[in-house]
Specification:
Layout lengths: L1 E5 L3 H10 L7 E5 L2 H11 L3 E6 L4 H13 L4 E5 L6 H7 L4 E4 L4 H49 L3 H15 L3 H15 L5
Parallel strand pairs: 1-2, 1-3, 3-4, 4-5
Length: 194
């Protein structure tokens, strides 16, 4: 497991590392701030980021959100104290687990394991949602192309679909891409720029 600990306090960072002592293989790196860790994120590619601090500040949460937005990975945050609304902002910044006043070596590993699994499940849900959105958009495009073929060529719906499917198979491309291309060509022929 590759763990990046972001904590300005070396003693507190050592507690996090101590809680992972029995994890094998384990590679731990520490940075005092998110800004200091930023250049290493791509090369180190941590499996999980652990942020430990007195109380998260706006800059840390913004940096965290920007870095994990571009390259999502699980983030666990151990804070000594939390003001109202900080937990919500942390979650919006990509934090999978937010633990207040609960950093002890015995709790680190279970919290990280739960956060990593929760992160994995959320990524799967996001991928499923994106696929569903893409499929719906493709279906709408195919339906529009079928309507165009039915109107322009006088085909029945099933015949229009078979024609689109044949064009897709002949060209080795997805039916949605063929349908989008057909719609774009029709708009050009009608004098509308796509």
């Amino acid at each position: 497991m590759r763990v990046l600990i972001i904590d300005p306090d070396e003693a507190r960072a050592a507690l996090v590392a101590e809680g992972l002592a029995d994890v094998r293989p384990l590679v731990v790196r520490r940075a005092a701030t998110m800004a200091e860790a930023e250049p290493e994120l791509g090369a180190f590619a941590p499996d999980v980021i652990v942020v430990a601090c007195d109380s998260p500040d706006r800059d840390t949460l913004e940096s965290l959100g920007a870095s994990t937005g571009a390259d999502p990975r699980p983030v666990v945050m151990f804070v000594d104290r939390s003001a109202p609304g900080l937990a919500e902002r942390a979650v919006e910044a990509g934090v999978a687990a937010y633990v207040v006043d609960g950093l002890s070596p015995g709790r680190v590993r279970p919290v990280l394991e739960v956060a990593m699994r929760r992160f994995q499940l959320m990524q799967e849900l996001r991928a499923d949602l994106q696929k569903a959105k893409d499929d719906l958009a493709s279906r709408k495009t195919v339906d529009k192309a079928k309507g165009l073929l039915m109107k322009e060529r006088g085909l029945e719906e099933e015949a229009a679909y078979r024609l689109l499917r044949k064009l897709a198979m002949d060209s080795g491309r997805p039916i949605g891409a063929v349908a989008a291309e057909l719609i774009a060509y029709a708009e050009v022929l009608r004098g509308k720029a796509p």
